[in-house]
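User: Reviewer 2 asked us to show a designed sequence for the structure in our supplementary figure. I'm pasting the structure tokens here. Could you produce the per-position amino acids so we can include them in the response letter?
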């Protein structure tokens, strides 16, 4: 199977191909922020990226394929998790990173568009699930270390703890409209830590 026939996001190209991918994904993100998934158009993305339409259609094929690769790239570019040696400080760092991302004018709007698209497009939903699985898997390490240090009971489900940190923050973004700030981040981290210490997340 040639690289251009492979699933978007599975190739680690170099040189001009990498530059084209970067330009197209940036353009796709801009278009999503401006217009949303419903109005995402491959020809418009090609124009924004200053590349040929045939290149975009051949490599990504569909808007869902393009968003899939965009999410893969976002996972690749995400900051590594913090390792402070303290569960609560690690969870606070995680929560503050979530808030920083969701309140960023571009990133926040981009996530809203992708989440909205995932509700009606199965391929986008799968890509979004993979993105979050990657991020949760990385941050789950701080919970596993807390178990090893004796901060949390044995058998604590690390992924569930990380989900508990971010869930109320996404609720504020998508449902309630309540402020997303440092206080909300710290509250989410502290609540998840307290529940984990009490054994709420023992598998």
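Assistant: Here is a per-position design you can include in the supplement:
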């Amino acid at each position: 199977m040639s690289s251009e026939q492979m699933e978007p996001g599975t190739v680690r190209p170099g040189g001009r191909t990498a530059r084209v991918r970067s330009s197209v994904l940036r353009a796709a993100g801009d278009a999503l922020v401006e217009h949303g998934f419903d109005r995402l158009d491959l020809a418009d993305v090609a124009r924004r990226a200053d590349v040929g339409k045939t290149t975009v259609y051949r490599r990504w094929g569909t808007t869902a394929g393009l968003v899939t690769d965009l999410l893969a790239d976002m996972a690749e570019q995400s900051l590594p998790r913090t390792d402070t040696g303290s569960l609560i400080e690690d969870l606070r760092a995680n929560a503050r990173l979530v808030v920083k991302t969701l309140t960023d004018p571009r990133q926040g709007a981009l996530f809203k568009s992708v989440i909205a698209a995932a509700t009606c497009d199965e391929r986008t939903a799968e890509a979004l699930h993979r993105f979050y699985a990657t991020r949760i898997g990385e941050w789950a390490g701080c919970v596993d270390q807390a178990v090893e240090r004796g901060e949390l009971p044995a058998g604590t489900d690390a992924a569930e703890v990380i989900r508990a940190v971010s869930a109320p923050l996404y609720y504020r973004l998508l449902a309630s409209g309540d402020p997303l700030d440092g206080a909300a981040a710290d509250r989410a981290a502290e609540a998840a830590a307290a529940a984990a210490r009490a054994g709420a997340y023992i598998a």
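For the response letter, you might also mention the following. The two ends are 41 Å apart (CA to CA). The chain has nine helices and no strands.
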